[in-house]
Amino acid sequence: MAKEITIYDIADKVGLSPTTVSRALSDSPSVRPKTKEKVNQAAKSLGYRSNIFAASLRKKSTHNIGVIVPRLNSSFQSSVLAGMENIASQAQYNLIISQSLESSKKEQTNALTMYNSHVDGLLVSMAENTGNTDHFKPFTEKGIPLIFFDRTPDEPSSPSIIIDNTQAAYAATSHLLDQGCRNIHHIVGNSGISTYKNRIKGFKYALMDRQLPYTEEQNIYSVLNEESGEEIANIILQIDPLPDGLVISNDACAASCIQYLKKKGIRIPQDIAIVGFNNDAISRLIEPNLSTINYPGYEMGEIAMRNLLLRLSENDDSPGTNETITLKSELIVRESSLKK
Amino acid sequence: MAKEITIYDIADKVGLSPTTVSRALSDSPSVRPKTKEKVNQAAKSLGYRSNIFAASLRKKSTHNIGVIVPRLNSSFQSSVLAGMENIASQAQYNLIISQSLESSKKEQTNALTMYNSHVDGLLVSMAENTGNTDHFKPFTEKGIPLIFFDRTPDEPSSPSIIIDNTQAAYAATSHLLDQGCRNIHHIVGNSGISTYKNRIKGFKYALMDRQLPYTEEQNIYSVLNEESGEEIANIILQIDPLPDGLVISNDACAASCIQYLKKKGIRIPQDIAIVGFNNDAISRLIEPNLSTINYPGYEMGEIAMRNLLLRLSENDDSPGTNETITLKSELIVRESSLKK
DNA sequence: TTTTAAAATGAAATCGATTTCATTTAAATT
DNA sequence: AATTTAAATGAAATCGATTTCATTTTAAAA
């Protein structure tokens, strides 16, 4: 293992003090351009790389941003991450990513690790079964910017980036009602997370606004992924009378559900009209094409990261507003919900 | 911003030296159990967290692993990352992830950033247009473990984790031949990457082994994603005579291609039989279900990370074997290729 | 009880960049 | 040319944990 070059080595080579070398390398205005050039050249020729530990030890900033997501291998989450990475790398920040795997316990461990790694800021999309947010307190207490996105706590004590889930579910449901559906069910995640709570609200309001009956039984709680589609389809098939419309909170899940329903001889949308959520690639590829809520993952990632960087650059200790940024989402109507 | 607690604060509180505190916290055998307990308790009550910079500055290890992928938001890549994260977090390592966006230039920048961030090891899946691997030299020169996965350089100077792309393409092509196809084309990534080169080999060998003609024109080079499917379909439609079989190196691309071909009145598999690559969720959901190569992303991630950690724990400076680990892949036959 | 060996603890140097404060050098002013 | 002012550089302290080497304490052996 070759020895690392330090600023002292550079200082020796160019006959200056380490102080000046340090300043030259960080492009300080109090160093002559000529000197800077000399130093930079020597640095390059020696193969110098800055020791970030020594630097961080003094500066107390890592240029690392932590991100905790439920799952890395989810089409929505990975889009968000892609957006975040894009902005972060432009600003010379690194991304430290970990996944909670929907486990509240692992989320706590992740948070602790992030804290101990001294990330400059933290972005979190919560695990489904996470009840409280105590494990994030160390961040807020130390003044480390913390922003939630998509899966946000019920009572946001920190800024959040979300879509208007109430409105989105309202739009999806209203659309089905417009298509003549009168027995709609709502497949939704089971948890205390605001995301799903609000979708349930939107579903309910859409019915109530038309003086149509709403009962809690219309919500079917389930894990939402490709695997659960069949299981959900079986539950649907046992409902009597058979529903004529479904709002399913996840496209991958909706797609596999549709596939199974079709196998069982159900016609989509004639027998059951369906709207999904996310506008995943799959929604454009299954038959019939899936109506869905377009949910801007990549943009959400970009916005969350920009917002975090903004807070980092505000070098004061201001408490910071706990605003909630709500992104637009839109209903995309395709064949799966068009009865007429 | 509250002041950080250091081992000196703990030392003061319990009336011991920082030395002993340091040793107690790292569970050194030369500290009495009683003393350890006292120190740990004080640490907890003071809200101590170790300053990793100070520690890293001395120990010269960060417990950070860098990963460079072409795209975060790809179903395959995010599975790989999920597998990596899983193993890394168990071993108390952090993942620093960045994406090259298929740009060789950005890959170089990423590599430099990783190098300057002093990652303990690096895992890389190369961008399509990356010709050489000079930008990874600093790692090998400094003895920092570097492992390539999936998209590996042509002449692996570092260990690689791949699947046998030659064999996989051979299997896909042979299957189509078994189905009676005699005019097969191969949709493949355009680049000098070994992945695609080997698939082309496999395609060719399958034909040659049956004494069937092979020409370079049978390979169609393209970007492989959902968006390019339509474009590719158009190219296919203009081939005269129309191919009766396609091997498409990516499921998402194959799916959108199938959709477009169907729109144009082509029957799958009767007119054209198709085999994809990756076993993405989409392959199980489109109609007809897509035959594909099952390509173990999650496992690949786990194996790559385990291998890297192994190299890190071998605390000697041994050159390390440049072995290539080849994972099994398998052809999954579904409707899209079954002519009989 | 004394001697010897082992276990436990501490003092101080170290890792390498940054920063405060002091000093030297150069440029501007009279 | 002498003085003032600004620009450029340097010495040394600092960040906090680790580690080497020395010292003290405790336990085991004589």
Chain pair with largest interface: A-B, 57 and 57 residues
Q: Can you say what the CATH homologous superfamily of the largest domain in chain A is?
A: Response regulator
First CA to last CA of chain A: what distance? Answer: 72 Å
Unreliable sequence segments of chain A = none
In spatial order, strands of the major sheet of chain A run: 2-1-3-4-5-11
Number-wise, the strands of chain A total 12
What's the CATH architecture of the largest domain in chain A? 3-Layer(aba) Sandwich
Q: What order do the SSEs of chain A take from the amino end to the carboxyl end, as H and E?
A: HHHHEHEHEHEEHEHEHEHEHEHEE
Estimate what percentage of residues of chain A fall within beta strands: 5-15%
